[in-house]
Design goal:
Radius of gyration: 23 Å
Number of helices: 15
Structural class: alpha+beta
Largest sheet: 5 strands, mixed
Helix content: 25-40%
Strand content: 5-15%
Distance between the termini: 40 Å
Oligomer: single chain
Length: about 500
């Protein structure tokens, strides 16, 4: 299956509270709501179906064990991605990691003609993304396909909030430039010999993509050409989604609840530590660097929101080290069979520092077993700590820190009445700062959709429609928005 991993709408606050209470039913709901998309993300980082299954299992076990740490229950989904990423980076640091068994793509049931058209669009997407760095690919994947907002990205990537906003904006600009270069390589090479000399393969490999982007920026003929550049969501919608194993659900629930696996659960929970003051796991650090304490990411004040994420800006994730943001040779970009993955060309060694052995076997069954005794599993005392084992480096003076970026604003909404008409417009406004928004659902017989970003004080309208049928009496419904807010709508 290709397209955006649509998360749907789920009661994150209720699920978080139920997880804290140890409710097994809540764990099944969390799995059903988030596991397919988390698995696709883990598979993109690990490029192996067995490792991805193990990472997802450990993510959900750790979430159940640490649910009481999360201070913002409405951000459960982004929090799960942060745990999953830390577990994936831990596994990538292992010299014993399982490799070479990539998951199949979820089936779309397309005809041969549709598959051929999709394959060509994938080549375009691959060529555009090849011009981005690994950090940018992961940022755009999480932001667009997985619909995580900037605050979630701060927690997942371990980047200060004031750095996330320019990272997202620069990534969108660079992706747009990559798409333009890819379109020229796909359709207009005859018009520019210099461009033809750079695009010697299709889809474009990373070096050629970067060189062609620079050429288009400097070439008057290529730079002035009018091209229909698809938005990020349409561009990335054709990329494959890894099919989650059918038997993984039972394995995860068994591993998370079986009495004889309590020791494994304690070890898995310990791997997720330490956490920051918001209850988000700090990014994974390779063993060789743990003695050096890293500056803590700054999120700034965060307003509680009613949904798990704000906008969908998304991207295909390239892998990077936990703090440095460097390409390390593995990309979360969904694999495209006609071309080696971008990660093979972006370079950089995968860390191979040894780490504690995962209590789960690297076999087709992702469930933990009791084959690993407690002595073989890390204990909380062995996990990374904010207190370094060596002399702490002198912290930089406060004047060297980047100024804290203003926190996101709040969304103000107002309802509308369509009477006997077939539509009306709900007005939304950003108050107190910028707001990334999207429609999260409707009630009653009305429909609406959309999303975007508002500058402070800016307003926009969202069209609301009712079924094209005759109705009697006065009826009402509503349109729900993220971050927070519900607009009443009356009709008939």
């Amino acid at each position: 299956m290709a397209g955006e991993p649509r998360s749907g709408q789920h009661d994150a606050v209720r699920l978080t509270e139920s997880l804290r209470a140890g409710d097994v039913i809540a764990l099944t709901e969390v799995y059903d709501a988030y596991a397919p998309f988390l698995y696709d993300y883990c598979h993109g980082l690990l490029r192996d179906r067995v490792e991805a299954a193990g990472a997802l299992r450990n993510c959900l076990i750790a979430a159940r064990e640490h649910a009481d740490r999360l201070t913002e229950p409405e951000r459960l989904r982004g929090w799960l991605y942060a745990i999953a990423r830390k577990e994936c980076m831990r596994r990538r640091d292992s010299p014993n990691r399982h490799t070479g068994q990539e998951a199949p793509e979820a089936d779309d049931g397309l005809s041969p003609e549709q598959l051929a058209r999709r394959d060509e669009r994938r080549k375009l997407a691959h060529s555009a993304l090849a011009a981005l760095s690994g950090r940018q690919r992961e940022t755009i994947d999480l932001h667009v396909r997985h619909e995580l907002d900037e605050v979630d990205l701060c927690g997942v990537l371990g980047v200060p909030l004031e750095d996330v906003y320019p990272l997202v904006e620069q990534t969108r600009r660079d992706l747009g430039a990559g798409v333009r270069a890819a379109l020229i390589a796909q359709h207009h090479l005859r018009d520019c010999p210099a461009a033809a000399g750079l695009a010697d393969a299709w889809p474009l490999p990373p070096q050629a993509a970067a060189a062609l982007v620079r050429h288009v920026a400097e070439c008057q003929a290529c730079g002035s050409r009018e091209l229909q550049v698809p938005p990020p969501d349409r561009l990335l919608a054709v990329l494959p989604i890894a099919a989650i194993p059918a038997d993984l659900r039972l394995d995860v629930l068994t591993a998370a609840t079986a009495e004889d696996r309590a020791g494994n659960r304690r070890a898995i929970a310990a791997w997720t530590e330490p956490f920051d003051e918001y209850g988000w796991p700090l990014p994974y650090e390779p063993t060789v660097t743990r003695a050096k304490e890293k500056p803590q990411r700054k999120r700034g004040p965060v307003y509680a929101v009613a949904g798990a994420g704000i906008t969908a800006v998304v991207v295909l994730a390239g892998a990077l080290t936990a703090f440095g943001g460097e390409d390390d040779g593995t990309s979360a970009l969904p694999e495209i069979s006609v071309q080696p993955s971008i990660s093979e060309a972006t370079g950089g060694p995968v860390p191979t520092e040894s780490k504690p052995v995962d209590p789960s076997p690297t076999s087709s069954s992702p469930s933990p077993t009791e084959s690993a005794s407690p002595s073989e599993s890390p204990t909380p005392s062995e996990t990374p700590s904010r207190t370094p084992t060596s002399t702490r480096p002198a912290e930089p003076p406060p004047s060297t820190r980047a100024p804290e970026r203003p926190s996101p604003g709040t969304l103000r909404v107002s309802g509308c009445s369509m009477g006997r008409d077939e539509s009306c417009a709900v007005t939304i406004s950003a108050v107190g700062g910028p707001v990334s928004w999207r429609v999260t659902g409707t009630s009653g017989e009305v429909s609406a959709n959309g999303g975007g970003r508002l500058s402070p004080g800016e307003s926009a309208t969202v069209a609301v429609y009712r079924p094209d049928s005759w109705c009697w009496g006065e009826k009402s419904g509503s349109v729900s928005f993220s971050p927070g807010g519900s607009a009443p709508v009356s009709y008939c």
